Amino acid sequence: MRVRNGWVRGALVLAAVVLCFSVAYSRVREPNGSYAERRAKLRAQVDAPVVIFGFTGREDASPSYIFGQEENFYYLTGHNEEGAALLLLPEKSDNGPKEILFLPPRNKPMERWNGPRIGFEDSDASAQTGFTNVEAFAKLKERLESLAKTYTTIYTLLPGRVENGYPHRTNWNNWLRTKLPGVNLKDISQPIAAMRQVKSASEMVILGRSIDLSADAHIEAMKMIRPGLYEYEVAARMVYVHMRGGAEREGYAPIVGTGFNSTLLHYNGVRAQIKDGDLVLMDVACEYSGYSADITRTVPANGKFTPRQKEIYEIVLAASDAAIAAIKPGVMSGGTTPGTLQKIAMDVINSRGKDKDGNPLGKYFIHGLGHPIGLNVHDPAVPGRALEPGMVITIEPGIYIPDENIGVRIEDDILVTETGAKNLSARVPRTVAEIEKLMAEAKKNRGKQKD
Ligand code: GLY
Ligand code: MN
Ligand code: MN
Asked: What CATH number labels 200-450?
């Protein structure tokens, strides 16, 4: 129900989502009610206050940046501006506001640089953000100190064992520990991750747009690829298609690897010239209004797979097809036990083809089969949770044989439905015949255009 109806509802809410493309928020948002529903759901699960800090804008070393909000904060607020915080109280708490959005004041000189922001003192701050209670960020400390008289625990986002990138969580945890010395800080990331795993209809509209733009970019790349081009020319074309379609940035740095570089999983050189006989692997996708797609295709530089390239390609494709065919609610994605998608794909790869020494090819499939996508290209997942309708995951088997300069990965974005799966990136050519046909047509057209 949730998903098949979800797609129908997705179309119906499209207008509502588009209407949320307001001046203050420079990208498409879900309606305020979607974020409010999530907050209510989280508040119903906790027995203590939750405080979550948004990014400040200082995460990026560059003075001018494309602001991408802390994802959990964004998921619960839809607020994509700097220096905010969210306070939620349990559903069963005493009288008083159950949700407060804390915002910094307007900074007019700064707005001459970065554009207008919503300030706590704006008369329409509530209408814009969907929060009845919007307060000055400077009040947060006072609010928390008062809550600490009642609660011995506060939930927040605790840093993981290693905090990659900007130490956002570490910094705010230090701040909380200093301000609330007697309070026990507990992690709230798992309940939010559990919610993030199942996409709503309005999220699907946005994620669908991200996938569509990324699919368009792959098709354009396939049409242009030929020996003599440089990897960065292909990447540039793909980024152009994304941005022309309204994406704010890439979901991750484009991976375009030719020849040996196709065997490097997260190759980021993107400098080499494409040679006749190479395979070109493109793992490229955009972020649209916060949501990232994740698509990979591998094509022959000259438009025609060699027999060996075709053999390897078709093994990867068979692994992908087998895994996608096995998707349905209740199935486990990762793991090595029978019935998991990972094992199904690995069994296909191990049972077909050999390397030069006659060994099975499983040892060249050196990564996980997939992961959730959403506000992050590697969206969080609750460990050990089986697939459910509304989840969107990648299926991305690969075989990488450095000795043969062959790296093949095929990555699609898959919606789990009530009964199975829907491949949201299927329109990007996947079979050998589809890829060769598209590239042959493009070559013919290039000949006519004399480029
Ligand atoms: N694009 C990164 C990945 O496929 O996981
Ligand atoms: Mn991926
Ligand atoms: Mn990828």
From this structure: 3.90.230.10
